[in-house]
DNA sequence: TATTGCCGTGGAAGCGCTTCCACGTGTGGG
DNA sequence: CCCACACGTGGAAGCGCTTCCACGGCAATA
C-alpha cells in the first residue's frame, strides 16, 4: 500500500522516464507522442493508479469540464418531481458522451445564493437553468453568457427550450370540447413560472370560441394541490364537467380529490393532465394527457450549452394528445 | 461593460489597494484583517463582480468543496426513479447547508467509467454511492476511502445506510397472512442488487412459518416489469391470492397487469408494495405498502461523508407498514 | 526610554496540470 | 553531401488561488 498522497502527473512522468509534458500529452491524448512513450506512460498510470486532478486540469486548461444544472424553485418539491429527474438523467447522458461531469444545484426562489456563486466559472462548460426566473437569470456571471440555456420556460434572454404547451393545451381542451364538455376548469402552474401563461391563453381562447366561461385556479404542479383544487373547483362551480391540469401530478391529485368527493370520472367530470408521465397510464381511470418530450428538450439544452452554438433564441417542442380513460 | 476576462483576486487586490494575500483572507473570511482592509476589499469585490474560481480554490486549498453522488445502475431508468430524485434532493440540501456543491454521476453497471475517473479526487469532499456493487466500490481511489458512503445497499466495505427491508418485508407479508392470504407471490428487485436478498429471506421465513410454498419472480423495480410479472405469476400459479413487490413502482404495475387480466384487487388478489412513494395513495385501489425513509437515509449518508465521522459500518432505518386498500 | 509581544500585512512558494516554445534527432529532397 | 523539414521531446511559464513566513508598527510591560 502506497503512501497517503495520491499519485500526480509528476510521479507518472518519473516512473515512465519521460517529462511531465510528455506524460500530459499521453494522458490527455492531445499532441504528438511516440508509441514507446505512450506505452510507458500507460503502464505507469496503471501501476500508480493515477487519476488526473479535475481542479488542476480545469485551472490549467481554462476549459469547462462540467455541465451545471440549476433547478430554480420554491421548495424542495421541485427536485422530487419526476420532471427534474428526467432532465437530470438526460443531462447525465449527454455529459457522459462528452466526458464532462454534471453538477446539480438547487436554487431557492428569491435566493441569496445566486447563480454567480454557483458557477465559480472556471471549469464550467455550460449551465442549464431549469425553470428560470428573470431575476435568477440576471445573476449569471457575464463570463458565462453564451454558455447558458434555459428549459421549462421560454425566455428571450438566453437560448430556451420548452414544450409547446400552447398547442398542447389547445389540443387537450379541444378534445374535451369534442366529447361534449363545455364547463371546463383549468388548474394552472405556479404563478412565478411564466410558461403557464401561454397555456392559460390557449385555454381561454378555446373557451371563448365555444362561448364558455373560463374557470381558472392556480396550482403548483403537485399532486397535493390537485386534491384541494378539485374540492375548490367543485364548490365554486358545482356544474363543472371537466378539469384540465397543466401537470399530470396535479391531474392525478384531482382524480383523487374527485374520488373523495364521490364524483365519477369520466362519467360526471372528465379529467386531463399534461406531461404524460409514467404514472399517467397506471391511474384508475388511466389519465388522458398530452406529451412532454422532456428528454428531447433537456438533450437539446445540454448540447446547446456544451457545443456553444448560437441557435434560435426559443425552441418549442411539439406536444401530442394521448387519449386514455379519464377524458 | 468590462472586458471578456472575468475578474481575478489580483484585480480585486489591486482595486482595493491591498496585497493578494490580504484580499484572499478577506474573501475567505479566514485569518486576520483590519476593518479598513475588509471594507475596501468588499467594495472592490462588489464593483468588479468578482466570483472566486472554484477550481483554483480547490487546487490551492486542497480541500473538498463538492459532494458527489454516484448512481449505479443498469439503465437510465434508475435516474428517472423517484427514489433517486429524493436522494438528490436531500443531498442538495445537506450540501447547501455546508456550502458545498453537488455533482451527479451515473455509472452504468459493468462500467468502463469507474468511480476513480469520476472523482478526480481533489476538490471532492465526499462521495455517496447509490446502489453500489462490489466491483464498482473497488474502483474508488484509495485517497478517497473514508469519505465514501453507500446507500441502498448494506455493505461492510464502507459506511452504509439503507432501509431495513428485512423487517419491512416481514411486516408486509405477515399483514397479508393476517388477512387470510396464504398463496403469496413476491416480485424481487434486480438480481445485481444484493439488498433484495434480505427481503426475500424474510419472505421465505414467513411462508415457511405458515407452511406455504414460496413463489418468487425476479423484478427490476420498474412499473413495466410489474405488469409482466403479474401475468407471469397468474399463469404459473393461478391460485395466487396475494402479490408483494419490493418496490411500489412494480406494485403499481402489478395492479395494472392484474386489472388487464380482469382480476379484482383486493377481492381476488391482494397487492402490496414497498417504499410508500407519493403515488401509492393515488392509485385505485390505494396501495398498501411499507415506508422507506429515503430522505433520512440520504441525509445520514451525506452527513457521514462530509463530516468524515467514523460511524458504524451499517445502519438500517426502520420501515413501517401502511395499510390502504389493496391489501 | 528600552524591551517584549502581538497583530495586520505583503512577498513568495507552491497546488497539479496544460501548453508554448525551443531544441535535438531522424528523414527526404536538392 | 548538406539543407530543410518534419516530429517527438523537455524546459519553463503560467492558470487563480491559499498559506507559510518574515517583517514592520503599535501598545503594553519593565
TrEMBL record, chains A, B:
Domain HTH lacI-type: 7-61
Membrane-spanning segments: none
Keywords, sorted A to Z: DNA-binding, Transcription, Transcription regulation
Molecular function via GO: DNA-binding transcription factor activity; transcription cis-regulatory region binding
Cited InterPro entries: HTH_LacI, LacI/GalR-like_sensor, Lambda_DNA-bd_dom_sf, Peripla_BP_I
PANTHER family: ALANINE RACEMASE, LACI-RELATED TRANSCRIPTIONAL REPRESSOR
Protein name as catalogued: LacI family transcriptional regulator
Native organism: Lentzea alba
